[in-house]
Amino acid sequence: MTAKERDEFREFRHGVGDVLKDCVRVVGQRVALERAYALIEAGIGGTQQQWQGAEAALFAVRAMGAEVSPNEDTVLPKVMDMLARFPPHPKLRYAATLVIGRYTEWTYEHPQYVAFQLSYIAEGFKEREVAAASAQALKYLCQDCARFLADHWRDLLGFFGDVAAAGTLDDADVIEVSVALAHVISAVPAPDTAAAIEAFCMPVGQELGALLQPAALEPAARRPVALLLDRLGAFLRYVHVEDDKSVQLTTQIVSDAWPLAQAALQRVANDAKVSESAAKFIRVLVEFYSG
Question: What does the pLDDT average to over 103-124?
């Protein structure tokens, strides 16, 4: 498929999505979702599984999300329960993961699905074709359901370290997961908030400091420096703390981060990516102080 054909297909799917939203408004959410559910069931049932039909129906469910109430209790539970029966096809897992990410407000009203959805998303990180969808879905699940995930912040932090080290995530996906963790850590009860913030920030800061130690930054170290600046900046932008201990710790982290940003600019001012990441990071630090 050429680039032009991909653009045309993407535009076509957007148009279909608009039509599906209109269908929900006309026939109602239950009827519209039941039709999509029947197509998914037909696509994964039988002896010859036709994943294309199920994938298209999952796209329909996702597209209709803007018009579906978070309190829908008839069809969406059946759709979510069906995910565990899907055949191991990356296209299906990709589409199903995007559905989970689209309906996280619904999940907030149905917290019994949080554990399964988190596990389903985590499995997707093992497949490069699904990793981007998993990062996006995790961000939205952590954003909307942080209160149900706050007790598991250590597990999430350890999981993030594993997938980041595995190298299956693109840089943008790493940032998505950093934002996800910021949402969860913001919901951690006050006695443990400071420890959670420190557990995320300190390893990133230490790794960044080690990379910036040499007087001249090696070309191979430039991309990791930019990514670490982006990770720390994304986390500090989205984490919100109120208790005194956490505020003091975050303020100290921000103060310690200034020399790192300065060192990055001094070492490789002529590197566009590092300079851009350092500038964005400085903006986050300034916004923190002004806030």
Answer: 95
